[in-house]
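USER:
Working in pairs, take the chain set out below, taking as long as you need, and write a paragraph about the fold.
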Amino acid sequence: MKIHPFVLQTSFSILFATFLSASFISFAQEIAASQEKPTPLPDITVTASPSAFAPSPLIEKYQLPQTSRSLSIAQAQETVNLMDTEDTVKYFPSLFVRKRNNGDTQPVLATRTWGVNSSARSLVYADDLLLSALIGNNNSIGAPRWGLVSPEEIERIDFLYGPFAAAYPGNSMGGVLQITTKMPQKLTGTFSQTEAFQKFSRYGTRDVFRTDQTNFSLGNRHGSFAWLLSGNFQNSYSQPLTWITSGTAPAGTSGTIWAQNKLGAAAHVVGAGGLLHTKMENLKAKFAWDLTDTLKATYQIGLWNNDANSTVQTYLNDATGEPTFGGVAGFASGNYSLRQTHLSNAFSLKTNTGGHFDWDFSVSNYVYLRDIQRNPYDVNATGTNFTSYGKIARLDGTQWTTGDLKGIWRPDAFGASHEISFGLHTDREYLSNPTYQTTEWNGGPNQTASLYTLSRGITSTNALWIQDAWRFAPNFKLTAGGRFEVWEARDGFNLNTSQTAATGAITSTTAVSQPSVSANRFSPKLSVNWTPTSKWELTASFGQAYRFPTVTELYQIVQTGATFSTPNPNLKPENVLTEELALQRKFKDGSVRISVFNENVQDALIAQTNLLSGPTPVNFVTNVDEVRNLGVELAVQKDHVAFEQLSVFGSLTYVDSKIEKDSTWSSPTGTTVVGKHAPYVPDWRATIGATLRPNENWSLTGAVRYSGKQYSTLDNTDVNPNVYGAFDRFLVVDARVQYKMNAHASLNVGIDNLTDTKFTLFHPFPGRTYTAGVKLEF
């Protein structure tokens, strides 16, 4: 469904003007009324119902200055067709998760200023465990490790907008998502079973794809010791994730579907790839020990396993009417097996006295114990068989480790007007990514003596930060801080090869040891908050942040045709300057917020076409001189609207994203990038939804999500929509019904993409999907 931009602009203008008019009239009236009597010193954050609208305990404890949005798991279960943990943020203002299928291992979180290929421009945590894979900034291995958190573990979700807290690194430029998991106070257990059925019809593929999911949790508390075991098991079948295309119809075949690619060139569809069957397990154990009344130790360990097989479907027939691949090599890359086992560990010690001094210590590690993908190198000239030659890509040993020590001091000497927080941080990311040649792609050992490619390297960061939340006058709070970071990239190594067609025999090899690089940066932060009444809050924030290159950005291997080029390891950190002015009206049962934000990024790390050497254009990451994102966001959540049983939620975001300067751009066709939209940032995003609760047993939710046009090229030449590789506008409608039979059992049914909208975000996205589930708890 396509919405004309004029309709959105007019609607937004009316909504914006109405909100501002009503807001400032009410604002002025309430301030005037408040002058009639002294206004008491406000609490840290004035909230509505603690169960539904309370801010994150982390925000309260460390006086984090960001605007935020929160969701309890009870709210998520009422409003969202919840299959995977990332589904919980589906209706958050300005956020979008690129989830291609249930059990997707590549669901990147897009924020209001950066898109689905910017995994390192936001942070995702589960308690003290970093789920963001800061080994990359892409929509593949850089995606957060959502699968390590079962939906049954979750207690609440909080998203903090912008890089305004000194406690977080520059990766927070898009925001920080905090997943808080629960711990039992008595013997508790849950069991849920959910089924999903997607009806998909596009090109020559028409089928129903099923997902089975089982969740459980069991926990108890014994005096000062508590434990929680949880598990998630998912068996899913996806719609095609790729289309197999060819520039011409293969000779001697029929069945080619005439089509173009996103640039308008011939890309005829000859089959479907990425028909993924996934068996995924996640097992988690969490232990908490109250060492004293104010000191708690927590340890968690998680094991995630994924066995997946991707198959292909050909639309081609030979002269005799038999199916054939027609010699198209794309069928080989769409057919693979994937075996993954990942392990996480996290330990923390925390105090919570509420007195003069509190501190936290946490350390976590995430390691790829096994990560092996095998696929054929090519297809046979005739028929539907693959050659025996193939590739084995591995990520075993890839890992990241983080450590934080932080404290907060509330000195009496200053009349309790200051809360000074500070901390030390360290992290280390290690990438090991060899790809081996094999003569038997679907059998034999997982490692050979012949390497096609090898990417390896380490990045590390050490940081010191401090921040002071100062209530310098009644109703005013100034939060000022800074973060000093020392970053290093070292031990980079690349091995590249050239191969012959069909067999993949290696004809030449190039090995390069990359130079070490380092950088030191200081990032100041400043925020002023004014709460003239208990219902109004105005916050102005400024933050500078530096986002350092990831291992894969520094040491990725670039291929042009059959030739691999040496990557550029000398990338500079991104320099981010962000401002936000946020006005919020708080209710007992909700809030309305409008934020105007501006983000200027110098040396933005973006993949683009450039000249490495000679006249041949290649695609790799470089520093774009300057990118600007200027926008406005309106967010609403309110219970008891019009009548007691109705709740509404929604948001509307407009972003004017522009490339201001790119001195490294070079185009063989003479195009320019200055003034063009930054890649993957839609101009409009909108969500609106409502939940009706006729009684305490029933809840009925409907929601609509819209995303405007976005580009995947710097010069915005990808204008052909709804084809493989394109990034389309889309509007989808979701619905959910939950019935609580009693305090221990509930049923739910739902539909995602009710109107069966067909759209592409590089990959074809799911069609209409029906869900049904049951949950038991005690």
